[in-house]
Structures are given as C-alpha cells and as structure tokens.
Amino acid sequence: MERYDMIVIGAGPAGLSAAIEAAKCGIKPVVFDENARPGGQLFKQIHKFFGSKEHKAKMRGFNIGKQLLEEAESVGVKVVLGATVTGLYDGKEVTVRIGDEIKHVQGDSVLVATGASENMVNFDGWTLPGVIGAGAAQTMMNLHHVKPGERILMLGTGNVGLVVSYQLMQAGCDVVALVDAAPRVGGYGVHASKVARCGVPFYLSHTIMRAEGDDHVTGVVIGEVGPDWKIKPGSEKHFDVDTICLAVGLSPMAQLLSMAGCDMDDTKGGYVPVIDEDGMTSIDGVFSAGDVTGIEEASSAMIEGRIAGLAVANYLGYIDEDEKAKRIGEQEKALDALRQGMFAPQNRGKKITETEEGIAISENLLEKGFVSDDEIERYPGVTHKKGIHPVIECTQNIPCNPCQDACKFGCISIGDNITSLPVVTEGSQCTGCGMCVASCSGQAIFLVEEDVEPGYGEVTMPYEFLPLPEKGDKGIALGRDGKEVCEAEVTKIRSAKAFDHTNLLTIKVPNEKLMQARFFKSRD
C-alpha cells in the first residue's frame, strides 16, 4: 500500500491551496481529483474577483486557477487526475478508483476538500431536457464553449444566478428574466445592476410553476408567491424559452467525512463536519477546508485551504507552534476581511436597512435589481464636477478595494476599512485613464464629462460583449433599469492589456442624460 505524508481529496481552490502551503513546509502531498483538469470551479469563473490584492482582487477566476497550478507545480505537488476517491476509512486509509483499478493508499494526514454540488428544485417538467443547473451552464459555456440555449430563464438571484446570467448574455444567449421566490435580490447589488441595465427584468416573490414541452423545454410558466409561499391565483406569466437554469444554492459534499465517522453538524447551509479553528475534524489527522465545511466564495476557500495546509504541517511536525501561529494569523486576517460587510456570514438572513455610513439602502435595487435615478444621488461616489471625473455607483458594503489601488492620482479613496463605500477625493484631478473603470470587479464605475461639445457630454463605461462597437456607431443608451434613455453615438473604444478584457466604451449623449445613460445598445 502506498503511503503519503498528506493526501488531499479535491484539486479545487481549497485543496490546491492546502497542498501548496504544506509543500512549502517540506511535505510531499498527493492530490486526487476525479476531473480531467485541476482547479475546480476557478476555470469556469471568467468574472473578476472581489477583495484586495491579497485576495486576488480584479483577477479573473481562470487566471487565478492558472496561478495556483503554476505554484503547485513549482513546489512539487503531485496531482492525480481522473481519480475518484470512493472511501475514507480508519487509519486514514483512502480508496481511489483510477481507470478500472481500485487503489488503497494511506496518509499520515488527510485533507478533504470536495467542495459542493448544485441544489435542484422540483416543479412540473423539471426532468425535461433543457432544465439545468447554473453551474452546468457555466461549464458548457466557459469550459466547452457550447451555448446552453438560445432563450433562457434563470431561477435564483444569488451571486451564482446573477453572474451566470451575465455570462450567458456574453455568450450570446437571450436571458428573458431572473426569477426568485424571495422578495429581495440575494446577491451583490453590483452584479444585479449590470444584468438589469442590459434590459433583463427581475421577478422577485415569483417561482416556477411548470416547464412546458414534450421531449424538451419549449416554455416556462411562473407565478407570484404570497406571504404563505403559495402561488397567487391569476398571477401566472408565460415565457417562450428553450432552457431553464437553476441557481438555487449549493450543498457541501461531505459524504466522505460522514463515512469516516467524523462528527457532523446539520446546519441551514448543509450537512458539514465539525472542525476546530485549524480545520481539523473530530478524527485525529483528518482535516477539511473550502465549501465542504460551509458555502463561501472561492477567495475564502483558498485562504481556508492555506490555513489547513499550515495546520497539517504543524500536525506532522514540519513547523512548530510559533511558526504555525504566525503564518495562520496572517491568513486569518485576510479571511476576516472577506467576512465583513453586508454579506458577512453573521448577517445572513438579516434585513439590512442602512450602509455602514448610515445611508439608506436602495429598496429598488433589492426589489427590482437596479438603483433608481432618485436613489443613486445619495451615495458618496456619485459626484458632479467640471471636467472628466469618476461616478462610482457602489451602494453596498462589499469587501473590495481595487478601484483605490487602480488610480495612481488618488482620485478614489476607500480607506483602511475594505468594506467602506468608495468616495471621490476632494481636489483630485482625474486624467480619464479609465483604470478605475476597468479594475472594478462589479463594473460599477463610469467616467462622465459634460460639454465635450455644445449640449453634449460623454460617458465611459465598462463593456465586455462581442462584437465590440466601432467609433461612429449609433444606437441607444439604456438606463440603470435597462430602458431606453436617448440616442447615443460611440466616440471611442479602448482596449488594453492592463484592462484585462474589460473594454472602455465611450458614448456621446445630451448633457442632461449623462447621469442616466449606463449601457449602449446598437441599433443592429
């Protein structure tokens, strides 16, 4: 039987990060993963991450995945792919199927980082071809370059539903609506806003009644949900679609830990192992990290993995308690920063009515997916001044600060608290370079300039759709609600390596429409 210092089950963000950190301490870990490619969900994530530099902020998920793989290779982490772990037994013995062969291996330590699986919901027709999970749609698009469908309805307005809806549109799909039984948008407001300004309607307090079709989806009927969670009679709405995407949460894949006899906790977020502060389960030498311990963002999973990797190194005697405490302390500080703000774990389920600055939350954003024109003026990043200047439509306390780092002229400030709303610094002079626009993970920053010519000004916005418009193209400007604001003409399109595939699109509109125009749609 082969024996290893450390067996890692799962080559996603948490598992790879743990193996890397352990290998840096001198351990020789092996990582088993059932997939044909390591990196887990990272290679499906084409959007830019939130957080700060230490959290890989403003980097796209697949690039973070590439970095992890390069780092793992550089420190000698052994990754075995196409390897399905089928059992975890006494003595930290693991059975793994590789091809047609079942192998028994044993570790001095085992780290389980098996992630999570998508939840499903039942409704009439839910087994028809064309009803798929949002994660499956993301896999089809971003890994296999296959459109999941032409006309799609998304169920779920958490971050997964919002992000995947936007990516579906980037892939050329028509997203006809976002639907959620909850009365409020569940994900980040900036994600909802970039979907809403593309013209996609939100139906909150609605759910799917049935999918239509004989051998595949041809339509869907939704209905409004009352306070008793029952469908209100007469509230049915029909959409012609060929695909229904479900983004209704994730469940930790903790079966191996349960099989091994670890103490488990049945929480609202799923069936998870009981772990100590270092990620060790109730079984000596068996650790876990990432979504298998509770659903969070990939950024958190990577940090949890590094903490667990250091804890394993200490457990095996490769680093002492002082070294462990020092290095884990640095990681915990980074993890704590991600767990602050309105979407912090301790705030789940709470109705937040004000920002940390005491500003009333946009009810329109929560109920319709966009901040209304009269609400937007209350936020500190929304400014009016002569000359070109940033307008920052960041309205929720999210742990993120790339815009502050992006501006080399100090025009934008967040301060030491990473969840503070950004402000435009008094007396600063914007050069119009656009780095803040391109770096914003939520695509919530615009450059505005009045009187570029008599009666007309320009708005520069982030643009991540193909084909790119060309200078001189005429079309319409859409508002935050996705409705037509005015005629618009493209005056400039900028692409640069530093923008990381976020193009800067500048359109000319009447001065009085500058604070409303937030998206460009070609007449074609």
From TrEMBL:
Gene Ontology molecular function: any one: oxidoreductase activity
Keywords attached to this entry: Oxidoreductase
Keyword tRNA processing: no
Domain 4Fe-4S ferredoxin-type intervals: 420-450
Transmembrane segments: none
InterPro entries reported for this sequence: 4Fe4S_Fe-S-bd, FAD/NAD-bd_sf, FAD/NAD-binding_dom, Metab_Enz_Cyan_OpOx_G3PDH
Name of this protein: NAD(P)-binding protein
Pfam families: Pyr_redox_2 (PF07992)
Coiled-coil stretches: none
Oxidoreductase keyword on record: yes
Domain of life: Bacteria
